[in-house]
Design brief:
Strand order of the largest sheet: 2-3-1-4-5
Pfam family, one: Ras
CATH architecture: 3-Layer(aba) Sandwich
CATH class: Alpha Beta
CATH topology: Rossmann fold
Keywords: GTP-binding, Nucleotide-binding
Shape: globular
InterPro entries: P-loop_NTPase (IPR027417), Small_GTPase (IPR001806)
Radius of gyration: 15 Å
Largest sheet: 5 strands, mixed
GO molecular function: GTP binding; GTPase activity
Length: 138
């Protein structure tokens, strides 16, 4: 684990692929709902975790910047990227395994994120998530 007590990830992908639902399930605080409202520019979800040796654990706050998937929100997303750039150490790109277009759109997301973040840096974490297995939203 890195020395910092706070790390951040930007979460991107087309609208409707289940980014918000995935994060809410990870947080285990909010219930999963297929009828959840689409994200407008950015939702921020924070998950508290612990790291370190058994008797020396420290709290770590993992912040997920859940980005709106519609193209019309590009300006807002760019503002969030610039504002949070120093805190973001990785990207989670999500696609719907039942929708090939959502996978193909990840190329544009990669290009968009590469403007602000060092995606070629091996220390910048990149996670690819295929979502909606069996019709369920994760």
């Amino acid at each position: 684990m890195i020395a910092s007590d706070s790390i951040g990830f930007v979460v991107g992908g087309m609208t409707g692929v289940g980014k918000t639902t995935l994060l809410r399930e990870m947080q285990k605080k909010l219930s999963s709902s297929p009828d959840s409202e689409p994200t407008c520019v950015c939702d921020v979800l924070i998950i508290k975790s612990q790291h370190g040796k058994v008797n020396q654990q420290r709290d770590c706050f993992v912040t997920f910047y859940d980005m709106a998937g519609l193209g019309r929100h590009l300006t807002g997303r760019t503002a969030v990227y610039c504002h949070a750039a120093k805190a973001i150490l990785g990207a989670v790109l999500v696609f719907d395994i039942t929708d090939r277009k959502s996978f193909d759109a990840l190329d544009q997301w990669y290009k968009e994120l590469n403007v602000t973040f060092p995606l070629s840096d091996p220390d910048f974490v990149k996670i690819l998530v295929g979502n909606k297995v069996g019709g369920w939203r994760c």
